[in-house]
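Milestone M4 deliverable, item 7.
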Amino acid sequence: MSIVLVGLKNSGKTTIGKKFARSLKKTFIDTDDLIIKQYNQEHSEETHHIGEVHNQLGEAAFREFEQEVIGALQPNQEFVIATGGGCYLKASSIKTLQQLGKIIYLYLTKKEFIARIHQAHNSSYLQDSNLSQIYEARHAILDNIFYKKIDIEGKELDTILHEMKRII
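Output delivered:
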């Protein structure tokens, strides 16, 4: 059974996931990387950033494409999987993630989420003037799909990893 990391954009899923996988001697998978790879195989132009794929496909088609890529993962494998910041927006994707393994929600407060978005200068999110609304809508979904929830705000990486090891 895999460990599936979910959380809002810039919550550290990839950074935490890589270190966690290494500590468990498991393979790490980043669904954003899988999406980019699959997109590049199917299209003539090559992209290196998940935002570019999203912009090319548009929201609805991107979520469908994301679901296809996630759906190709095998539930009987033991991976640490970092998901994209919105992969749980489709009910079918939630079901797939739950079949893959235990979902760990890397929780941030609204204040910290907004600060991280601004700090990262994430243009696609900054164009949306209501980050608070994005947070509320996505947190409401995330708060109902996890196996365990870890508050990561203000914590050192080693502390987060220790908490994760304790709960699995």
